[in-house]
Amino acid sequence: MLEVQIKMSNINLKENFSFSGIKSDPLVKKMINLLMRDGKRSKAEQVLNKVFQVLDEKYPGRSLHIFYFSVFEAKRDIGIRLKPKPKKRRKINSFNTYVPYTISSMKGLNLGMRSLLKASRERSGSRPFWENLSEEILLASFGKGEVVAKRYSLNKLADSNKRRVHLGYRRLFPVISESKT
């Protein structure tokens, strides 16, 4: 009897999943804006609603938590900039160098969500996009998947080039040397 009630309650949860209350969340709003193409906000909301429904079927009542975990796992905190090699110099070190720099927290969240979307777009084209996105979100929330692997490889590259951080700083004002007059 209890098992039947649990099954019935799971069915009710699937049918009664409400996306309207979640839309006011700032990270969900940002994801809708990133999903939106050509001003089609309602289609982006439908796609994200289907993603949350798929996550809610697998893990009832935890879809928003899984979304948050995946975004925070995909968040970037360090970026890599390529500094080109110097021209017309005949030095031994005439190669491109990678210069690490820090990223603000808001930009890091934005880059993380963009990388989730990019990885889900690059998945197989035979399945619908919302299934690919839900799969990528689920993998990222567990600390696995393409997005998290790319983040770890970028952090490893930044760690190996941390001695070149001083090359990334640019002076805002030129240093004026005092002349002896």
Automatic annotation (TrEMBL):
Annotated signal peptide: none
UniProt entry tagged with the keyword Thylakoid: no
Residues annotated as transmembrane: none
Keywords assigned: Mitochondrion, Ribonucleoprotein, Ribosomal protein
Source taxon at top rank: Eukaryota
GO cellular component: ribonucleoprotein complex; ribosome
GO BP annotations listed: translation
Ranges of residues in domain Small ribosomal subunit protein uS7: 21-162
Family, per entry: Belongs to the universal ribosomal protein uS7 family.
Official protein name in the record: Ribosomal protein S7
Organism annotation: Fucus spiralis
Gene from which this protein is expressed: rps7
